[in-house]
Design goal:
Elements (H helix, E strand, L loop, with lengths): L22 E4 L24 H13 L8 E4 L8 E3 L9 E4 L7 E5 L3 E4 L4 E7 L3 E7 L5 E6 L1 H5 L2 H13 L6 E5 L9 E2 L1 H10 L5 E4 L2 E4 L1 H11 L7 E3 L24 E7 L3
Parallel strand pairs: 2-5, 2-7, 3-6, 10-14
Antiparallel strand pairs: 1-15, 4-5, 6-9, 7-15, 8-9, 8-10, 11-13, 12-13
Helix pairs in contact: 3-5
This protein binds zinc ion.
Zinc ion binds next to loops.
Length: about 280
């Protein structure tokens, strides 16, 4: 009998240890219904993938959190830094019911921004990714949660600090009570960027962690986001970084860069369960 090869793929789905008590998960690309190049657990309808496959995949992913398709609102990404606020006390929630995609007969709850915070039970949100950084937040004192999608544009606009500020303003959070997760995304090993990316950070007054190697410039989105969160008042031991590079691990995650743009999307789902 031969022993099975060492298991190197992360478990399905990925979770942050620091958010062990929070309803959240990050999907991989494994175990889905979609054919190449979206193989196989593609959650994004903004791809060329069949909508039926995407909805089947979402159902499979959400089942890990004991959620059904209609329990989760999806973020319609804008690459801006606005934060949608779902507050118990608010009558006017930012959710709208829209077709899953143009021409679709199926509708879903959605919000138009790259980040959300919530203290509403029975509400989960999903963000989709293929290299950009998933950010997850939890206030240990108030129980409020947050989620965000931060690519280089979002990071340059200080997406993480915007979420922390929104939690402070709307839920009275103390940043020292907030724990955060920085999920799988393109790593400093692979993310070569042009000078214009560095210039964009400078023009917005944010600092990018950049490393020149040979004639190339590499952006470290993990450390950049971590430093921003520490500057926002989070303690360094309350920030967890997955340190999984999507471009190095296209066997497990989708990578826009490594797969030349023809690929699927994995997701971060986070929320507060119904009481
Ligand atoms: Zn890499």
């Amino acid at each position: 009998m031969t022993s099975s090869p060492a298991q190197t793929a992360p478990p399905l789905p990925v979770r942050f240890d620091l958010l062990a008590n929070v309803s959240h998960a990050i999907s991989t690309r494994l175990g889905g219904a979609s054919p190449a190049p979206y193989h196989s657990l593609n959650l994004g309808v903004s791809t060329g993938d069949d909508e039926h496959n995407v909805l089947t995949n979402r159902e499979r992913f959400f089942s890990h959190l004991n959620l059904a398709l209609d329990d989760v609102m999806t973020a319609r990404l804008t690459h801006g830094s606005a934060v949608s606020v779902f507050a118990r006390e608010a009558n006017d929630q930012p959710v709208r019911y829209v077709p899953v995609r143009e021409g679709s007969k199926r509708w879903e709850g959605a919000f138009h921004s790259d980040a959300m915070i919530s203290n509403v039970s029975g509400l989960h949100a999903m963000f989709t990714f293929a290299d950009c950084v998933p950010l997850a937040f939890f206030d240990r004192k108030t129980g409020a949660v947050g989620g965000a999608h931060a690519g280089w544009r979002g990071t340059a606009q200080a997406m993480g600090p915007q979420v922390v500020r929104a939690m402070t303003r709307h839920f009275g959070s103390d940043p020292r009570d907030i724990v955060a997760g920085i999920g799988p995304s393109i790593g400093p090993c692979c993310y070569s960027v042009g000078r214009e990316v560095a210039d964009r950070f400078s023009s917005l007054g944010t600092e990018a962690v950049l490393e020149p190697r040979g004639s190339e410039l590499y952006l470290d989105l993990w450390t950049t986001n971590q430093r921003q969160l520490v500057a926002s008042g989070l303690t360094s031991d309350s920030i967890e970084i997955s340190r999984i590079c999507t471009s190095c691990h296209v066997d497990t995650f989708f990578s826009h860069r490594a797969e030349g743009g023809r690929t699927g999307r994995f997701g971060l789902c986070i929320g507060i369960p119904a009481r």
